Every structure is written in C-alpha cells, then in structure tokens.
Amino acid sequence: MSLTHLLLVAPAFLVAAAGLLAGLVFLFRLSLPRVQRAGSVTLILPLTGHAPGLGGLLRALEAQTLPARRLLVCVEDARDPACARAAQLASGARLPIEIVIAGQATRCAQKCCNQIAGLARIDADDEVVVLCDADILPPPWWLSALATPILDGSADIVTGYRWPTPGALRLASQLVAAIDRGIALLPRLATFHVTWGGSLALSPHAIEKLGVAQLLAGTLSDDCSIGEQAATAGLRVLTRRALLVPTPASDGLAAVWRFGRRQYQIIRVYRLPLWSLACLALSARVLAWLVLLANLGQWWA
Length: 301
Description:
This protein is an alpha/beta fold. It has helices spanning 3-29, 54-62, 81-90, 110-119, 142-151, 171-184, 204-210, 212-216, 222-233, 253-270, 272-294, 296-300, and strands spanning 41-46, 70-75, 97-101, 128-132, 157-166, 199-202, 237-249. It has one domain (33-290): Spore Coat Polysaccharide Biosynthesis Protein SpsA, Chain A, CATH 3.90.550.10. Helix content is 50%, strand content 16%.
C-alpha cells in the first residue's frame, strides 16, 4: 500500500482507536445503580401503528423494582391501530394504563404532540415524569435508575441510551447495532447537551422551568430540544452510563436506511456540531473501506 493510501486510511484507524479507548473507559467505570428511592412516577408513552412490541414492554414495566403510578399511552386518534392495541392489553395489565387521545399535530412532530397530551394529565401527585419509547425492553431496575437521582434531589433530568439487540443474523440489523453501540459507548460530552427521548426522566421543577409542553409544541425532536433548553436553563442533567436500554433491531435494510436518514437529518438541524463530528468519523471509515477494497486485488496477487 502506498503512502497516499496509508494517509487516507489513517483517520479511520484513529477513529477506531478512539472508539476502542472510549469502550474500555466505559467498561472500567461502569457500575450498576446501588441506591433505590421510592416515589410516584408516571410514564408517558407516545404510540402509533400496530405496536408489535407493546406486550413485551408492558411485561417489562410490570416487573420494575420501582412500580410506576400509571402509564399514559398517547395516540393521535381512536382510529390509530395503536389505540385498539393499547386498549386490548390494558384490560389484562396489572399496571394502571390510561389511553390519551392527542389529536393531529400541526406545528410539531406527532410524537411531540402525543407527549404534550400526556403532560397535560400530570398532576401534583407525580414526583417524576418519564418519557419513553415503545421499542424498548427495559431491565427491572430501569425505572428506579431513572427516577432515584430526581427523588433524592441530585438531578433534575436523567437519561440513558438505547442498546440495539439484533434478533436475527440480518445485515441491516447487525449494521444498525454496530453503529448505534459505537455511539452508546462514546463519552457523553456536556458540550453537546445530549438527552435521549427513549428513556428520559424529568422532575416537576424541570418540566415547569423548561416549559416542556410549549417547547415540544414547536419542534420535530423531543430529546434534542429538551437537552438544549436544559443546558440553557442551567438544569442538572445526569446521563446514567449503565442505563443502556435493550432495543430490538430487526428491521430490513430499507427501514434501517429511513431511520438513519431521519435521525441524521434531525441531528443536523438541532445539533450541527454533533452532526459534523459524526459525519467526519463516518466519512473516514467509509473512505478507509473504499481504499482497502480497491487494493484488495493487489494483496491477493
């Protein structure tokens, strides 16, 4: 391989080395939460479509070491298949479930509109509010890990990150798992104000200070907007590094492409520095693979 080729490949090796180092540091510092506080926690779950994973999610929520006060399942309207699915499962669930009709979004993402409808049901008995996604399968200590720092007064907002779990040996699911797991192990730099809407706990004080309902009413991204506004408001945001929430990844290549494209478009709009860093790292890897593939014939000759 020529010097030019080595120079083209070098950035990718540096990115890979940095990722490996970040992973080792993560594992060295990893510790499971040891403290659990009791308190009143309400979950807000925006839902749409057929929601095939809802049954598994409800079983996981019922197994939590910190029982939730209630689950607010927020859908666009009664015609959404998610509404019938939630009603069917709610009838046999041990966890109190309320179905909230949000209406059609006009100035924000439908997910945000659903969350706003859920926030309107929050009352004085709620000590912690948790926003979550429908595709997660949280471990039994998940809710306690999110709520405890808020209940004991050490944080205003607590977040984690998804940990993709491929269900089959499919190229698309393995690809998205490899990319997302690499992101999950990166250091959480305060400069980027990163929160994840799939597991995001807020105190009543944070909800009031951020004006979360008003904030969500004009955005396409719940987590990007909340993270940025929390930094501006000076709120204490805790990222629990051990809180890597299992998220099944079994979609085909087309679905993975749509998901990745949408995520990167949102990050480009709301987190341009983070998008630039991710684009640089990904471009370096793609360039390295192209160089290696172009020279593959020479090595085997």
